[in-house]
Amino acid sequence: MTDPAALPLVPRNPLPYRELIKAVRNLDSGQEVIRAAGGRITRVAIGPKWLVPPLVSVMSPSAVRDVLGRSDAFSERCIVHEEVRHMAGDSLFVLPNEQWRPRRRALQPVFTRPHVKAFGGHMSRAAQVFVDEWRSRGAATTAGADIDLDLACRRITMQSLGRSVLGIDLNERADEIAAHMHVASSYTADRALRPFRAPRWLPTPARRRARIAVAAMRKVTDDILAACRADPSRDAPLVHALIAATDPETGRPISDDDISNDLLIFMLAGHDTTATALTYALWSLGHHQDVQDRVAAEAAALGDREITSADVGRLGYTVQVLREALRLCPPAAGVGRLATRDIEVDGYRVEKGTLVAVGIYALHRDPEVWDDPLTFDPDRFTPERMKKRNRWQFIPFAGGARSCIGEHFAMLETTLALATIVRAVRVHSLDAEFPVDVPFTTVAKGPIRARVQPR
Ligand code: HEM
Predict the structure, then answer these.
(1) How far is the CA of 104 from the centre of ligand 1 (A)?
(2) What does the entry list as the binding residues for heme (predicted)?
(3) What is the pLDDT of residues 189-198, one digit of tens each?
(4) pTM, two decimal places
(5) 140 CB neighbour count, 10 Å cutoff
(6) CB within 10 Å: which end of the chain, N or C, has fewer?
(7) Topology, domain 4-454
(8) Can you give the residue ranges of every domain in the chain?
(9) Measuring from atom 40 of ligand 1, which residue has the nearest CA?
């Protein structure tokens, strides 16, 4: 690597301030506007440097590797994580690298590929409950039943997260929790991306609403923790891992407050994301009956019994479908990092203090990187084609040390749910478009209507 001081500064994006601000705040498709004007690595100056810290947008595989993939990249948590930390306290998602390492080491065992396999039963059963309900509502007749894919997938993922790692049945509270999540995460992302932020002590109505939402979610996580303390035999692996973890410096256990923060962040990070992946995959299949038939045939080959983690090796095409859904509609449209010193990115200098925005959405839809990028084509993800691909061009779970801890969990859950649903019913999507909101992560702007008929 060259001394960054000898490198040219990342070229400035030529769009006028007003358009840049609009594009930056439009977390998914705004990336393409920024790229069209300034290229795959571009400096977005939305005010004088002394007033607004610089932002560099990176959207090419090599630039992403330089930011996320190098152990000496000096990239840290950024303003987005800082805002979440102020709103919801210390947690795995927001802790600076130094404090984060031991926490991640303590929690990683819960989320390894072999360990998450144990949760498969909860995941399949959560999907089966919906298939049964659709049948009782008319999906057993050829006329079928009309459903909202967004609502169904949210409930499936909430149930499966609750039962798998939190040891609780979240279904009754699912809608309420989801609404609180939406309020809290929109507020934090919105604040993080404003060029000018109101001081934190100012009690704005939006801030008050977000605080109330966080308090309501904290009530749920406090209850989960209390239930596990009262009954240590409760099947709640994440909660027990947090209770058992200690601070490597002091040897003391993590405080109950911090455990509760972590549980909250796992609910936030693990719910909307998986729900969006599953909803988008089902909506896409509802428009591509030939692809859906291949998924159904793969799942039907397993017989009528419950689909388990042990079957995943035989659901290769289903996994390809999910990867294609994650490419076209990445639930995390982007991730941010802070450069803690001058660094080299794709042959340019990124100055210390810069917010580096990794544009996952734009990267996944880049015509220079993907053939025919807007076409839904799961065959892009055959094992042979995956092997030949640049590791940094498909990054739905980010990459490097701070990539998603829930990746194996999410892939297993969505694979089992997709196979369970498509084996039982044929899905016809009734909406031509898949409208989204990007309050923080990308969520369907429901309802996403579909008709389901028995197979
Ligand atoms: C399709 C589903 C998912 C996607 C696309 C996704 C994506 C991501 C991405 C891109 C990051 C990096 C964020 C950043 O650095 O700012 C991340 C981090 C994280 N995710 Fe996920 N995620 C998914 C599911 C899950 C699930 C199911 C869980 C938990 C059960 C989870 C828990 C987390 C946590 C705790 C972090 C912070 C990790 C750390 O810094 O060590 N995610 N996720």
Answers:
(1) 12
(2) 404
(3) 888 777 777 7
(4) 0.95
(5) 16
(6) N
(7) Cytochrome p450 (1.10.630)
(8) 4-454
(9) 93
